[in-house]
Automatic annotation (TrEMBL):
EAL domain sequence ranges: 1-251
Originating organism: Erythrobacter crassostreae
Protein name: EAL domain-containing protein
Source organism, top-level taxon: Bacteria
């Protein structure tokens, strides 16, 4: 069967699994959150990378039911973690533009018993390109529930900065291309990270550096004043059991 046909039955076949990647406090190096990242193991196509099936799921709108499942699973899992640890869940524009997306969030909270303060939704700047008003409305509703919102892959989209004036994101995630550039002594990357950190501070938002792979990169990012670090250096996306075991080693 074609990939799309397989994707259509994948939820029912329980072919998805969530992996979790730690986000750590830049200074203390303690775990502050885990980002949920979906994986698809298809009986017909084998392991399909999210870089391939997420765009297909978005084009076919299958991301709506898949995203609902991701949200529910991530909240159920986070309920088993220490109270101070959040869960970050990626949300596609197609989900956010559904008129009752916030109802999915309310349902996931109710089903899991997770406090809304422990859920951080990740969106990219692309949500403001298609239907900015609806996206804003949807985000304001979930912020009103007590959830926080992070701006993912910051600096790689096509949007303007205008929405930063009126939407209170809690976190700006600096895209890993800047982090990797900075580590390779790109003055332009360093300048951009410095500017984003300064801007976030004055807007009362925190920053997370993505794609930190080495101790040197972690040190550089810390010196630049990023609040949180995520990347292979502190942990690759891992299965839920392994994520839970991390708390025993780093309580
Ligand atoms: O985990 P990996 O780096 O391979 O992810 C590739 C892409 O898929 C990233 O852009 C990531 O944001 C996206 N992605 C992973 N999990 C989810 C998910 O649950 N929902 C959405 N919308 N995107 C996801
Ligand atoms: O778009 P988003 O930021 O959600 O994508 C997350 C993706 O980044 C995941 O697929 C994850 O596997 C990948 N990722 C996480 N940490 C690192 C890292 O240190 N280096 C690289 N190259 N990719 C990473
Ligand atoms: Na993300
Ligand atoms: Mn990102």
């Amino acid at each position: 069967r074609r990939l799309e046909a397989s994707l259509r039955t994948a939820i029912h076949g329980e072919e998805f699994v969530l992996h979790y990647q730690p986000v750590v406090d830049a200074r203390k190096e303690t775990i502050v959150s885990f980002e949920a990242l979906v994986r698809w193991n298809s009986p017909e196509h084998g392991f399909v990378s999210p870089g391939k099936f997420i765009p297909l799921a978005e084009d076919t709108r299958l991301i709506v039911p898949i995203g609902k499942w991701v949200l529910e699973q991530a909240c159920l899992e986070a309920r088993k973690w220490p109270e101070h640890v959040k869960v970050n869940v990626n949300v596609s524009p197609e989900q956010l533009l559904e008129p009752d997306f916030h109802q999915d969030v309310i349902k996931a909270m109710a089903a899991s018993g997770l406090r809304p303060e422990r859920l951080e939704v990740e969106v990219t700047e692309s949500i403001f390109v298609r239907d900015a008003a609806t996206a804003r409305n949807s985000l304001e509703k979930i912020m009103a529930l007590g959830c926080s919102v992070a701006l993912d892959d910051f600096g790689t989209g096509y949007s303007s900065l205008g929405y930063l004036r009126t939407l209170r994101f809690s976190t700006i995630k600096v895209d890993r291309t800047f982090v990797q550039g900075a580590a390779q002594n790109s003055n332009e990357s360093l300048a951009i990270i410095n500017a984003v950190v300064a801007m976030a501070k004055s807007l009362n938002m925190t920053t997370t550096a993505e794609g930190v792979e080495t101790a040197e990169e972690a040190e550089l990012i810390r010196e630049m004043g990023c609040d949180k670090i995520q990347g292979f250096y502190f942990g690759r996306p891992m299965i839920s059991d392994e994520a839970r075991r991390l708390f025993k080693r780093h309580p």
